[in-house]
Amino acid sequence: METFFKLAIDEARQGLSEGGIPIGSVLVCEGEVLGHGHNRRVQQGSVILHGEMDALENAGRKDAAIYRKSVLYTTLSPCPMCTGAILLYGIPKVVIGENKTFLGSEELLRQNGVEVVVLQDPECIALMKQFIREHPRLWNEDIGV
Description:
Elements: H1 2-17, E1 24-29, E2 32-38, H2 41-44, H3 51-59, H4 64-67, E3 70-74, H5 80-88, E4 93-96, H6 106-111, E5 115-118, H7 122-134, H8 136-142
Parallel strand pairs: 3-4, 4-5
Antiparallel strand pairs: 1-2, 1-3
């Protein structure tokens, strides 16, 4: 688990280095990385490319059975849009870096049988706190405020 989570953090750092929002995600099935991504809303001028959505997009089309055996690692609690994608594809487990700076739709995931693991990773918390402090307008845009 630690290796895949570190990949998600690397994705978050890459997003920040590109001028975007530092949120990264990795989709893994049976020890194999299927897709990885980071929030690219700013970089691509996209309304939907959150980290989780980018990882799913980069994974490409997969048989539904693959998603139902997968784990999604993400550095920040998933928003309602990303939660919807997780539920749509039946991803059974989500490992979240932190939910102190933003609490997404974790309860909806749990209500639908998804195993939710929250790490409260200090690096993830620090990345987001600094970003929110330095770019409040961009952050509010990202979460629809």
